Amino acid sequence: MVVGVATVSSSGALIVLAAAPGLAIAFWRNALAVGALAPISLTIRRDELRRAGTQKWSLMAGLALAVHFGTWVPSLKLTTIATSTALVCAQPIWTGLFAAATGRRLHVLTGLGIATAVGGAVIAIGPDFRQGGAALLGDVLALVGGVAGAVYTLLGERARQDLTTTSYTFVCYGVCASALLLTCVLFGVPLIGYSAGTWAAIAALTAGAQLLGHSMFNYAVHKVPATTISVLMLLEVPGAGLLGWLLLGQTLPPVALAGIALLLAGVAIVVLSPAERTARHPPQASVP
Description:
Elements: H1 2-9, H2 11-17, H3 22-41, H4 46-49, H5 56-75, H6 81-88, H7 91-101, H8 108-124, H9 126-131, H10 134-159, H11 165-186, H12 196-220, H13 226-232, H14 236-248, H15 254-272, H16 274-279
């Protein structure tokens, strides 16, 4: 779990350090992950991939993941790593709201956690709202990325009922990379011509957060309760913020830090809610 938290926490700093457009980085981290998974997926898991009837959920999850990466990664180029990561990690809040929208009655603690997190998010983005411009746009993109991440998780839970982790991630990352490639072509985003340092950052991002980080969480879930892991994954936010400060000199006003703390407290309340513990599935190989 220490390895998992450390690797996913590094994603924000690596994205900012990579001198490439956010959409290009999002494409390459998924495309390279597909290449790494291909040898196993196309040989050992080949028969499983042929069951086309089980793939629709993975295909839809891949599209949701493309929206997630296509908004969150560019947001890191516009706002601070800590704020962007905190907003995108509020996925359990959106999952709870989706459940309420479909008629599910929320536990009182879940409602309290959602209200706390929303209040924290408003406080966190307050300084950017007053300033406007790129920072505010980055916050909005991170929020959209969080919503898309919640949709991706819900679709992934359904897909994993019929597919192994390897097959699911191979299809999902493949669809995501294809959608991001099309987006880059349509908007004229360059995909090559970067420096060696940028390619090294993209490679580290792929090997770390994309492949290794969440794989560690998926392994740990066999020995540690999923609720515990979900709470520990929130450590990504202070970890990412610390790296942003150490490597990039990014700082936040006290009010924004207080808002982020309140946001994380709300998410933790939702995760620890008795109703959410009962309904929770093991963490999926996801994001950031």
